[in-house]
Design goal:
The chain is built from 11 helices and 13 strands. It is of the alpha/beta class.
């Protein structure tokens, strides 16, 4: 992966919560491979996998803590001696939150507050956290601009908005430096295609590879700002190392700034796979939005962000990774 920072990080320590998850493990791998002094991953393995960390687990500058952000003592321990926190731990998925709002609230709000308190107490320099495009809720305006949001459409969206409110208050009240990254439909290597709450791209790839019809909720004409994982890692690094005072205690769209029709995305994957399989259209899901497109001008101007992987290249890389790592995917634990 390309270098997204220009600092010597050999004496810098990082904590990545949810470090065994899809996004968290990619961030951990980037930091370890780029010579970070210390990278600590905290994960309770509710949705993460040890195998995601297989490439770095034995490295001298990496440490894994098995623990839950819902336990304040675990958070305090994990933040001890840490310079930067990259908080990725959460219970994702709108449908999951609709089925079990209590669990989603507990992890995404109580756990988030625990991490903020621990980061404050341990004098962490900066707290970067995963926000969500779901915060835009029922707003119909396109593209999505950070300052203009609607009403939440799911318990998950509520929790992610509350995260932003808490981070803002901790910045103003305790002088903390917090930066939120509103992720838009992140995809790429290590994303889990299994389970009831898997994201659409790994689900489509898995279905195509097993010669099954991909299931599409609704008519397939909905659009998304699909964002390849390398762009997300870049945004996290830009947020960590940014020296622009105006960029701190802000929230940023983390996306590409393009939107793709769901059926078009499927057709791109079918072309890569040389597949002629047709999708199965099923009922639209509660909490889903019709269209999504991010305005990334704020991230460009304040953080110096520039997406490097667009949708076609990202889908190609992801498909190739899935094709080459079927054993890894099927035996992950």
């Amino acid at each position: 992966m390309i270098n997204f920072h220009n600092k010597d990080i050999s004496k810098t320590s990082f904590l990545v919560t949810g470090g065994a998850g899809f996004i968290g493990s990619n961030i951990c791998e980037y930091l370890v491979n780029h010579g970070a002094g210390k990278v600590v991953a905290l994960d309770n393995f509710a949705t993460g996998f040890r195998k995601n960390l297989a490439n770095i687990i034995e490295r001298d500058n990496f440490e894994l803590i098995e623990g839950d952000i819902c336990d304040i003592d675990t958070c305090q321990k994990a933040c001890t001696g840490i310079d930067f926190v990259l908080h990725q731990a959460a219970l994702g998925s709108v449908p999951r939150s609709i089925e079990n709002p209590i669990n989603t609230n507990s992890t995404n709000i109580d756990g988030f507050l625990n991490m903020l308190v621990a980061a404050r107490d341990q004098k962490v320099k900066r707290f970067i956290y995963a926000a969500s495009s779901s915060t835009y809720g029922d707003s119909k305006a396109l593209p999505k601009v950070e300052e203009n949001i609607g009403k939440p459409l799911s318990p998950y969206a509520i929790t992610k908005y509350v995260n932003e409110l808490y981070a803002d208050v901790f910045g103003k009240t305790y002088g903390m430096e917090c930066i939120g990254l509103r992720y838009f439909n992140v995809f790429g290597p290590k994303q889990d295609p299994k389970g009831a709450y898997a994201a659409v791209i790994p689900l489509f790839i898995d279905a195509i590879m097993h010669h099954k019809s991909p299931k599409i909720h609704g008519d397939g004409q909905q659009t998304r700002d699909f964002t390849y994982i390398d762009n997300v890692v870049q945004m996290n690094m830009k947020a960590v190392f940014c020296e622009n005072e105006k960029a701190v205690n802000q929230v940023y769209n983390t996306a590409v700034g393009d939107r793709t029709v769901l059926l078009d995305m499927l057709n791109i994957l079918k072309d890569y796979a040389k597949s002629d399989i047709e999708p199965e259209f099923i009922e639209k899901r509660a909490g889903d939005i019709k269209d999504s497109l991010a305005d990334i001008s704020k991230a460009k101007s304040l953080l110096g962000y520039e997406p490097i992987v667009r949708i076609n290249e990202g889908l190609k890389r992801t498909y190739e990774w899935f094709k080459e790592n079927q054993e890894f995917i099927n035996n992950r634990n």
